[in-house]
Amino acid sequence: MLFSGSPIVTLRAAPATPYDSAIAAARTCYSPRVIGASEVTESQRDSIGVLTFDAGHHTVYQHAHFEFGLENISRQFVWTFLHSYPFYNSEQSSQRYVKLKEPRAYVPPLAGRARDVFEAAVVRAWDRYAELSALLKDDALAILKELRYVRPNTNPERLKQIDKDAEKRAIETARYVIPIAAFTSMVHTVSGIVLHRLHRMMNTGDAPHETRLVISEMVRLVKEWDPYFFEKVGLAPIPDEDVQEGEFPRPRTGSDCFAKEFDTRLGGRWSRLRSASPDAEALIAESVRSVFGLTREELDDEEALDRVMNPARNRYRLDILNVSYHSPLMRSLHHASYVFEKRLSHTADSQDQRHRMVPASRPLMTFADTARPDYITPRLIAANPRAQAVYDAAMQEAWDAKNQLLALGVPLEHALYVLPNAKTLRFVESGSLLALLHKWTLRTCFNAQEEIYLASMDEIEQVRTLHPQIGRYIGPPCVIRNGLISPRCTEGTHFCGVPVWRDFPNAVRRL
Question: What pLDDT does 65 receive?
């Protein structure tokens, strides 16, 4: 039985007087002291509020932050709208480690035969998830026993923990068949100006109907908390007919041709280096010298690069807090940039996009829809013929349901929700070396999500070839920290069991 329902939005925390605090902040710009919110007058609410907002001086509305609890929202909505830009913070329920015991998913406004098809597709996908979880557990357990050196005399408690870990690995992989309509829950925090922007843009993206439900409720709760925050300033949502993305031509025969062309360019890679700062190493060296006022004679390129990239000399790279943006030395890495073409599944990209300083031109699925199944297959499934057969059947069932909904006249926006987490997304992603270095450190760890790990390894291999003085010091925490600081692995009890630091980047990842 499918559980659905309306989004649940709660305002968990907010400043006492967000609008008056914004006006007080604006007044502080023209005062020798800090103005308090209690000093704001009615006339200032009317004059200063409109003046700052209409003139584009929006930083005053950024001081207020609103912390929301969001439940009964789809992963498609989160991916296409809530996490598609940099300015937010979320703590979200994980499909990798939380077992999905019952079908719980967003159901768009459908009736009759269309609703029956939609709900049946979701329930069927959950059945496939349970089937795959059972099929994959023994495979995962066998690999973990080997990696963790299980012997006949191994402690029973340790065996029990390994068994639990194997179940997590199994559900992490089986989740690829779960539809993107699946519910998730999260704590989501945004600033006041971002909330205004979300309200303005809520008719954009791939899930405008669900987006309107959630964002309208967030705005309503803030209006209830402080009526001034939207009453005194703000703009109405952009109407559907003025959404710029809607004016683009639709692919003539679906997006199958685009997918084929894109994958040909990748040449079998997960991620292909499309562009890079050609003189990145010299540029970074020059930037380091500019920080310290040194000439090339006093600090040559090789020495400058070594001082910023080598963790033995730049110990900021060993700091678990990621202080790189606060370091005058490390900010020199801002000036080298890399652009990649890549492909990931919907579920992997939902994690990849959380690296907000590495932005991407992600697809609008309502434009990039394919008539034929188009999906990523995890390696654990590919290694098990029975699991592969179940998986392929689940993919065909999902696309059949989507195509059947379209034949019934269901808008593509709604039909897409039945597609699986495995759905392939193709996009262009870029970032400065400073941002990418942090991402690559985290995502070349063997505990990282499989696809993001594989894409990251593709990326650093190409960077090593192009810029060897930069690439030699890129790797997971255990490699960067090896011989310099303890503990070598930052994962604690989640250590992967493989001494990656002995043979990186050639160490083999089994799971």
Answer: 98
pLDDT for residue 155:
85
Domains and CATH numbers, the chain: 8-96+182-246 (3.30.1360.170), 112-180+367-424 (no CATH), 275-344+429-502 (3.30.1360)
Q: Give the Cα separation of 144 and 157 in Å (integer).
A: 15
Choose, from 113, 443, 464, 481, the residue flagged as catalytic: 443
β-strands 424-432, 337-345: how paired? antiparallel
CA distance 328 to 313: 15
Mean pLDDT along residues 207-211: 98
Tokens encoding 167: 């179940």
What tens digit of pLDDT does each residue of 285-318 get? 999 999 999 999 999 999 999 999 999 999 999 9
Amino acid at 53: F
- Is 443 known to be catalytic? yes
Residue 8 confidence (pLDDT): 98
333-370 burial by CB neighbour count: b if 16+ within 10 A, else e?
bbbbbbebbbbbbbbbbbbbbebeebbbebbebbbbbb
C-alpha–C-alpha distance, residues 221 and 211, integer Å: 15
Q: Band the pLDDT of 151: cuts 50, 70, 90.
A: confident
Q: What is the 3-state secondary structure (H, E, C) of 303-360?
A: HHHHHHHCCCCCHHHHCCCCCHHHCCCHHHHHHCEEEEEEEEEHHHHHHHCCCCCCCE
Residues contacting residue 475 through CB under 8 Å, at least 6 positions apart: 440, 441, 444, 460, 504, 505
